[in-house]
């Protein structure tokens, strides 16, 4: 076997293991792309509604942010809160491959809730090649344990608006995971949910484009769920949500007070998600982001 084939062998076997463990309901390779979303999910970036205000972190003082967004629980997109981040240069495909290619990142969870991990070099190849309906997604909280030249924590800083966090005063060892390095291809994403324990979040997109919908707490979960018949075996997936539920939210029959807030998040933008808001996020392109939850 030549070297190339050995690499392929390892890639395909590790990928198959990770897929089987993280989505046991998808029994065969064909189940992963049965809905043909890779073809259906064609778009032009200017086709999307964006109705959430932008503020500039260098112009809007912290007090004003608290008054206008944090206290009234209003989502907002923040510009210029990633200035000087090393992530801008360090979190690209080649640099990540070089430094972390042999390291294993969390790409999902198995049925018992244990992390499923894949070497980053394999995941980066998967990102390029996949036509899965809802590809595996790196959502890794252990990134913060990396030290020395591999310390990903040194590549970003907490935006000033979010520096005060009640969880800072809790026992750090008992603190639930609260910060994640997030990397995925088009169609990967996060299904509709409300963040736990009343926490709020910020999500800083370093590269790529994400599409968001947010709904107030009062909207019933039932109305926001993907039905089994609409997307068999993909009901919790963000991409199915945008294919199956989003169009209903645009019909005249959808209550006007429950219309979604919508964001087309661009590179360098940071979304503030106040506690209690339903949200669903799909990656439109390859994306790299960091997100943290916090409590006030
Ligand atoms: O996929 C994403 O970037 C969204 C993450 C998210 O919604 C969350 O962490 O609560």
Automatic annotation (TrEMBL):
InterPro entries listed in its UniProt record: JmjC_dom, JMJD6_ArgDemeth/LysHydrox
Residue stretches making up the JmjC domain: 147-296
Names of required cofactors: Fe(2+)
Localisation: Nucleus
Keyword Transcription regulation annotated: yes
An example Gene Ontology molecular-function term: histone H4R3 demethylase activity
Keywords: Chromatin regulator, Dioxygenase, Iron, Metal-binding, Nucleus, Oxidoreductase, Transcription, Transcription regulation
GO aspect biological process, one term: phagocytosis
Gene Ontology CC, one term: cytoplasm
UniProt-listed PANTHER family: ARGININE DEMETHYLASE AND LYSYL-HYDROXYLASE JMJD, BIFUNCTIONAL ARGININE DEMETHYLASE AND LYSYL-HYDROXYLASE JMJD6
Family: Belongs to the JMJD6 family.
Name of the protein in its database record: JmjC domain-containing protein
Originating organism: Ramazzottius varieornatus
The organism's taxonomic lineage, starting at the top: Eukaryota, Metazoa, Ecdysozoa, Tardigrada, Eutardigrada
